[in-house]
Specification:
six-stranded mixed sheet; alpha+beta; 35 helices; Chondroitinase Ac, Chain A, domain 3; 949 residues; single chain; Rossmann fold
């Protein structure tokens, strides 16, 4: 495509004869007039009307310079030509479409072009060598108009232009292989064959189906058609899942095995090829599933492609590590419900160390020993009374204790007294308690009081005599509560009995009407369980059966846990849960410090790390590990992860191949795989040194965009209708680069720029371009063109900014260029991610000794700079936190390494990078867009800061 765009525009460029007045003497006495004419051994060049370009690709000779810059091969174009018909003819010739099919303009039925600027109509009728390229085109590209194959390498000049090789050199890239036999895209197909097949010599996968052109030749698929058999599945997907890309699938469903190296599991999956191709089996994040009691082997995650219908998962484990008598099972974690389920169709061979499960649900799977795993779910979570965040409600609790004679043999050691006393110990200091003893009647042993010692003394004084009246056991506490209860307190009765006595059901109704909750405890085999359970459930309480007195303490503790227990450190987790251990929905169990709200000191309270309580039976959500500062070990502490919206349980939250720490250091969004929506995820953007927030064209699109900018410049109609460039291309970074160079017709460096862009090597492309840009003119002209381009749209504005940064020679110039372009309209340059948080209130500054990089040198420099800022009396210093302006408002999600406020109120942002890093300008761009009046410093080693006074 780029070759067609370039040739079309160059043919449209009215080259015309060289004005004699501009001639100047050249080297060895040659004149401009003679240099402009085809002569043996010379390739014509037009350089401001004069100059030569030797056939061996020597340097161009600018007028009056006397010596040319080494390696610069340029030729001036003063304007675009006026012959649209010839442009279309040439494009059709290059693309093998034949000659012009009638009519001017953009083809039959196409739009009518506006008047095209130019210097007249060159003669396109002459083609002395009959190779399909008019002589005027050959002169422009440097090939000989009388030779079909100027460099005699076996490719015609027209074929060389289609392939992007140099028609004047037999071995364009100098690798020792002639152009026809070379394979620049390394797809296994030499250039000569690519031309025969109609595939692209610089694109290994012409049709973009995931198979290289060489593989397609071997398989017999069509390299120009992504879906050879027309069944709706790209050839590459079919090959990856074992389907035949030459035969359309009848039902579109396949069964294939999905495996990944290093994952102790395999998946036999059934579904459409596209779903199978997208299905993966990965090791589950250790921070989330690695600390579960009874865990056997490695937890895995099945990431199912859309449309996957069913699969059989096979997990392997070390049989020798399984404890004797273990009861193994495969469990599936339902992430939506926040709980485990046990798939019915599973089998486990302990001796072989293999577990299999067939399922239609896809998310994490674990193998556990149920003997250990079930034990952690046996008891409900004991929560503090104000766990829901409301004010603590105090209680009035009456302990109704059976004093009948049968208690002597059911509880000979008086364990009921210790159990009831433990319940009193769990009360809050302002809770009140009373004791009522009963047999056939009832008696208040201690009226409601906050003197808990007196209550415990009264418990042990209850008598053991007489029969059992359940009516007395309920009536006595109700009378005490009615007489002495506090209306602001919750009314609680805890009834313990070992017998089955008479009962008046109206007492249950009375308790319910007065909002009195009754918990009942039945001791031994003689109790009326049905009655006790009815009393409890109808009043909102619970019934607990205890076979013998040894279980009484546990029953009273569970009642206390249901009511809520103290939370001494105020972290939202009860003291009892912190001491005995609390669990997450995934089964992680943590023992934390009940006297320290932040056990690990990471800035998050234990309650914040626990997250919301799903239910007392299930556990907490489990945001992070309260015993570790950096749960997932990615270099970001848990507090930072919570603030940034990343997962403290997964080092790569968005699954793009970059750890969250590396993403923030790079400047990308750790919660989004591809924030700019282009063809590269963030890991690829970093590896290719591109901006993760600026849409990147594919190599072919970028090459075409640069070429279009080079030859069409500001002529929008020509770029769209002749160059066939879409809006994204016309408002892109490569297009503007080309437009800045649009005064140059080039076959040397510019050919290299185009080739490098095509193959995706943006760095090499820019390096090639740097040698050309100075020939355009002064910096003012470049800046004016850049600012004008920026006014077209927000996308064009970002592209203009990128160009301004690219052309700057050092960090100071980069910041100055950014400031000039952004000054036109700062809001245009703000990213949606930054706008979304703009104006929100920031967290307090975090510890300044936090690392900003994996580089020790950068961290040491950060500490030194902070000392300098403090000495200069800067305030509101932040390290590696979201951008905050001088008004103490968040203005962006990006995180400058250091930010502070000067005495004059101006905000200062400082970025530290290695000498090889290019991420600094990207940060500066966003920082200034969000805070245009701030000072920005981009520092590289040795990180010397000179503050602006």
């Amino acid at each position: 495509m780029w070759a067609a765009v370039l040739v079309a525009a160059l043919v449209a460029g009215g080259m015309g004869p060289v004005p004699a007045a501009s001639a100047a003497p050249g080297p060895a006495g040659q004149s401009a007039a003679s240099a402009a004419m085809p002569v043996p051994g010379l390739v014509p060049g037009v350089v401001a009307g004069a100059g030569t370009l030797p056939a061996d690709r020597g340097a161009a000779w600018p007028v009056g310079d006397g010596a040319a810059p080494a390696g610069r091969h340029v030729a001036w174009i003063d304007g675009l030509g006026a012959v649209l018909r010839a442009v279309l003819d040439c494009v059709r010739t290059l693309l093998g479409m034949g000659g012009h099919a009638g009519g001017g303009g953009g083809g039959s039925g196409g739009p009518t072009p506006p008047a095209v600027p130019g210097d007249g109509e060159p003669d396109f009728s002459k083609d002395r060598d009959g190779d399909g390229l008019p002589d005027v085109v050959e002169e422009r590209f440097g090939s000989h108009p009388s030779l079909t194959d100027t460099d005699r390498d076996g490719l015609t000049d027209a074929e060389e232009l289609r392939a992007g090789t140099d028609p004047t050199r037999r071995d364009t890239d100098g690798n020792g292989i002639l152009d026809p036999d070379d394979d620049p895209d390394r797809d296994g197909v030499p250039t000569r064959q690519e031309l025969i097949d109609g595939t692209q010599a610089f694109n290994a996968d012409t049709d973009g189906d995931g198979l290289s052109d060489g593989d397609e030749r071997s398989l017999g698929t069509d390299p120009l058609r992504a879906d050879t058999d027309g069944d709706g599945v790209p050839d590459g997907d079919e090959v990856r899942v074992g389907s035949d890309p030459l035969v359309a699938d009848a039902d579109g469903l396949l069964t294939v095995e999905v495996v990944r190296e290093g994952v102790p599991a395999s998946l036999l999956a059934h579904g459409p090829p596209a779903a199978l191709a997208a299905t993966t089996v990965e090791v589950a994040p250790a921070a989330a599933f690695g600390d579960i009691p009874g865990l056997v082997g490695t937890p895995v995650v099945v990431d199912a492609g859309e449309g996957l219908t069913s699969a059989t998962l096979t997990l392997t484990f070390d049989a020798a590590s399984v404890p004797a008598g273990a009861d193994l099972a495969v469990l599936h974690f339902d992430e939506e419900e926040g709980r485990y389920d046990r798939p019915a169709d599973q089998a486990i061979d302990v001796a072989a160390g293999i577990a299999t499960v067939t399922t239609t649900e896809f998310s994490p799977f674990i193998v556990v020993d149920l003997n250990q795993f079930d034990a952690i779910w046996r008891d409900e979570i004991v929560v503090p009374r104000d766990a829901d965040g409301t004010a603590t409600q105090l209680i009035d609790a009456v302990l109704s204790i059976d004093g009948s004679g049968s208690m002597d043999w059911n509880d000979p050691d008086d364990l009921r007294f210790d159990a009831a006393a433990s319940f009193v110990d769990a009360l809050l200091p302002d809770d009140r308690a009373a004791v009522v003893g009963f047999d056939s009647g009832w008696k208040v042993a201690q009226s409601l009081t906050t003197d808990h010692a007196a209550v415990k003394a009264a418990i042990s004084s209850t008598y053991t005599d007489g029969g059992t009246s359940i009516s007395a056991a309920v009536q006595g506490p109700l009378e005490e509560l009615d007489a002495n209860g506090d209306p602001a307190h919750a009314r609680i009765v805890v009834l313990l009995t070992d017998g089955d006595g008479s009962y008046d059901p109206s007492l249950t109704a009375r308790a319910a009407d007065s909002d009195t909750t009754i918990y009942t405890v039945g001791l031994g085999s003689s109790v009326n369980e049905r009655l006790l359970e009815e009393i409890a459930t109808q009043t909102g309480g619970k019934y607990f059966f205890v076979a013998n007195a040894d279980g009484l303490k546990d029953a009273y503790e569970r009642i206390g846990g249901d009511l809520g227990t103290p939370d001494t450190d105020g972290d939202g987790i009860s003291d009892e849960a912190e001491i005995n251990g609390w669990r997450t929905q995934r089964g992680n169990v943590y023992v934390t410090d009940p006297h320290n709200p932040d056990t690990d000191g990471d800035g998050l309270t234990d309650g914040e790390e626990a997250g919301a309580l799903i239910s007392t039976a299930t556990g907490y959500v489990g945001v992070s590990n309260p015993l570790v500062v950096d749960t997932d070990g990615d270099g970001l502490d848990d507090l930072t992860e919570v603030v940034e919206g990343t997962s403290p349980l997964d080092s790569d939250t968005d699954g793009d191949g970059l750890d969250d720490f590396d993403e923030l250091e790079f400047g990308s969004d750790p919660a989004a795989r591809n924030p700019d929506g282009d063809s590269r995820n963030d890991a690829e953007e970093r590896d290719e040194d591109s901006d993760p927030y600026v849409y990147d064209l594919t190599g072919e699109e970028a090459a075409a965009a640069f070429t279009g900018g080079l030859v069409f410049g500001d002529w929008e109609w020509g770029a769209e209708h002749i160059g066939q460039l879409n809006l994204t291309q016309r408002e892109s970074f490569p297009y503007l680069l080309g437009a800045i160079t649009s005064g140059l017709a080039v076959y040397g460096d510019v050919r290299d720029v185009i080739s490098n862009l095509f193959t995706g090597d943006v760095i090499a492309a820019v390096a090639s371009l740097i040698g050309i840009i100075p020939a355009v003119g002064d910096a003012g002209r470049i800046t004016a063109k850049t600012v004008q381009f920026a006014s077209k749209s927000p996308q064009a504005a970002q592209a203009a900014l990128a160009v301004a940064i690219t052309l700057a020679k050092n960090p100071d110039e980069q910041v100055a260029a950014i400031r000039r372009v952004i000054a036109t309209d700062p809001a245009v340059f703000r990213l949606p991610q930054d706008v979304a948080v703009r104006g929100s209130t920031p967290r307090d500054p975090l510890e300044l000794d936090r690392p900003i990089s994996r580089s020790a040198a950068q961290n040491a420099a950060k500490d030194q700079i902070i000392e300098e800022l403090r000495a200069a009396r800067y305030t509101e210093i932040r390290v590696d936190q979201r951008q905050v302006n001088g008004e103490k408002e968040i203005v962006g999600i990006n995180r400058p390494d250091i930010q502070a406020t000067a005495l004059n109120g101006k905000r200062v942002y400082i970025e530290l990078d290695t000498n090889t890093s290019t991420r600094g300008p990207g940060h500066a761009r966003r920082l200034l867009a969000n805070d245009p009046d701030a000072d920005v410093y981009l520092l590289q080693e040795p990180y010397i800061l000179t503050l602006i006074q």
